[in-house]
């Protein structure tokens, strides 16, 4: 599934795109728990960066192009150049604009979620992992205090029932928040 999503996203070629967050984390943790990699994910997160069009219509256009290439996948495309416009309404905190999709990946709520991948033209894979890959491959849920409060971090695994889905998952205690706000996915 992830390979198919990467090929579709490469074909669409939104600017500075990465399949990221839960789409990558869930695939890895499912594999570590022996789940089939063919199962459909909750969503396929595609971050892209287009500072020339910050409208919600740009997100919808990228999603439509992705659906045209792989209609059975649950796409969720977000222009990371526009996050600072909707974030205050959704989370009640002003944030600085990002300069690239990789900047956004740095702020996701858990370190294992802070991973993005892109399939390059030569079929090599670009990996963006600003907090490393250890937590992802060691099945550790660790708070990323870059933007997310400890309270928000502690709610996510419970609300999403991660312990039930991934019983080998280890939870690290949250760390103090470095900046106000919440994260994506």
Q: What this model shows, in words?
A:
The protein is of the alpha/beta class and 185 residues long. The protein has a single domain, classed as 2-Layer Sandwich (Beta Polymerase, domain 2). 37% of the residues lie in helices and 14% in strands. It has eight helices and seven strands; from the N terminus they run αβαβαβααββαβααβ. The protein has helices at residues 2-12, 22-32, 56-69, 83-91, 101-105, 134-137, 150-160, 162-165, and strands spanning 18-20, 44-48, 75-79, 116-119, 125-128, 140-141, 170-171. The chain has a five-stranded mixed beta sheet with strand order 3-2-1-4-5. A two-stranded parallel ribbon has the order 6-7. A hairpin with a 5-residue loop joins strand 4 and strand 5.
Q: How many strand units?
A: 7
CATH architecture: 2-Layer Sandwich
The largest β sheet comes out as:
5 strands, mixed
Poorly predicted spans: none
Structural class, from secondary structure content? alpha/beta
Descriptors for this entry?
185 residues; alpha/beta; Beta Polymerase, domain 2; five-stranded mixed beta sheet; 7 strands; 14% strand; globular
Summarize the structure.
By secondary structure, the protein is an alpha/beta fold. The chain has helices spanning 2-12, 22-32, 56-69, 83-91, 101-105, 134-137, 150-160, 162-165; strands at 18-20, 44-48, 75-79, 116-119, 125-128, 140-141, 170-171.
Could you outline the blueprint of secondary structure elements for this entry?
Layout: H1 2-12, E1 18-20, H2 22-32, E2 44-48, H3 56-69, E3 75-79, H4 83-91, H5 101-105, E4 116-119, E5 125-128, H6 134-137, E6 140-141, H7 150-160, H8 162-165, E7 170-171
Parallel strand pairs: 2-3, 6-7
Antiparallel strand pairs: 1-2, 1-4, 4-5
Helix pairs in contact: 1-3
């Amino acid at each position: 599934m992830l390979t198919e999503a990467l090929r579709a996203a490469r074909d669409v070629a939104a600017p500075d795109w990465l399949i990221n967050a839960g789409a990558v984390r869930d695939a890895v943790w499912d594999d570590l728990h022996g789940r089939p990699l063919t199962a459909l994910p909750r969503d396929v997160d595609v971050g892209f960066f287009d500072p020339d069009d910050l409208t919600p219509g740009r997100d919808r256009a990228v999603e439509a192009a992705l659906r045209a290439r792989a209609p059975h996948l649950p796409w969720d495309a977000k222009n990371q150049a526009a996050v600072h416009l909707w974030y205050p309404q959704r989370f009640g905190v002003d944030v600085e604009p990002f300069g690239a999709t990789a900047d956004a990946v740095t702020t996701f709520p858990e370190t294992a979620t802070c991973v993005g991948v892109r399939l390059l033209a030569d079929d090599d894979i670009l990996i963006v992992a600003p907090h490393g890959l250890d937590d992802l491959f060691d099945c550790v849920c660790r708070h990323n205090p870059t933007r997310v409060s400890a309270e928000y971090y502690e709610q996510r695994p419970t609300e999403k029932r991660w312990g039930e889905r991934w019983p080998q998952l280890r939870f690290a205690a949250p760390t103090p928040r470095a900046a106000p706000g919440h994260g994506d996915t």
